[in-house]
Amino acid sequence: PSVNCHEIKESDPKAQSIIAEFAKEEKDAKSGAHGKVIKPTNYKDHPPHHRQVIKSINVAAGPGGSSSSTYKIMHEIAGLQKVGQLSEAIIVESTDGTKHAYLKMKKIEGVAFQDIGTSSVFHPFTEKGPEADKLWEKLQEETIRKLMKYAEKGAAHMDAGNKENLILQGKGTGEKEFKPAAIDWEQWVPIPQQEGEERVKLLERYQKYLNDIIPRMIRETKSYVYQGSGASSPHTAPESSTGGTPPKGATPQEGNSPRKGNSPQPE
What residue spans carry the region label Disordered (predicted)? Predict the structure, then answer.
């Protein structure tokens, strides 16, 4: 399906090694709707690395679930690849015919927007006043600019209103010392690469969508950071992350935010 994705049988030594690698990291796994997100065990000990995710997914998640589940995974792999965040994707077919996708994503350093208040590097964001206001304004501009860059590469992120999906990178709050990045490419829509009317139209529509959604997300994040962690649930986005009009009128699907629980069993 894509350059960095190939399918192999479970008996293949490469399959055995990736299964073993994932099993070793298992204790830090969270389950989502289609599989598990596994964070390397040392991930909490090495800030500011936000996460280097390896993700195991059931491609055929039960009767009738096969095609939509497979589509979602292939869509995510394609999105990660377009924005340069995919290290490797391998689909392993078990002897019973079930398949699992093993995704390894590149390490994205930094802190999630919602955790800006916990980082000493970005402490000036938490100090109320005109200086902090300027930083938040700058972050808003840079976030829109970065998301447009991804869209120009061919992938328009459709869950950017979620402050968990945006990462602040950098070494300080001075000029050019920080920059945003987006993670979690389950929800994106394609933007054609060839120059032409459709590309221009979709980029304009996406820009409008971001101009609507990002200022709201920044306001919400700012008040969350000012209130201090725990003031509201990080999963609560009162101002829906699906606001605005996505390109092509596509409605972003609800992402499978990893939740604690048992890992889905192949049927």
Answer: 25-48, 225-267
